[in-house]
Amino acid sequence: MKTKSQVILKIHLIISVTTVVPVAIIYGFFPDLEFELFPKTLDEHNFYKAIMGLYLASSIVWLLGIIKSSYLKIALISNIAFMLGLGFGRLISLFIDGTPTSGYLFGTFAELLLGFYGIGIINSKYYKKH
């Protein structure tokens, strides 16, 4: 990325990849390391590994969008859906289930911010020039 407009177009994808990949690894292999997640059954371990796979696959799409301009639109759209899906799901949980740990509260804010940033980018002059 060389220009200001490229940074504006892709910074949230870079942030997403650099945060989602480590979280995916933690969910898949060390869910109790940073989060209050303690899988006990094989099905629970399988569930977290599946989530890890979804997170890693999404990150690959975003990485392609960062590297190749022909993948930028799908990377932006998938990032918006991923982030807003997580963010709104967490908001629903916040209202129905109560307040989670601070890591999940921060995650809710960050996911909503990144999702709305993506919407702003798709509707911006920077994307239209791209």
TrEMBL record:
The keyword Membrane applies. InterPro entries: DUF4345. Signal peptide: none annotated. The chain crosses the membrane at residues 7-30, 50-67, 74-96, 102-122. It holds the Pfam family DUF4345. Keywords: Membrane, Transmembrane, Transmembrane helix. It comes from the Bacteria. This is DUF4345 domain-containing protein. The keyword Coiled coil does not apply. It comes from Winogradskyella haliclonae.
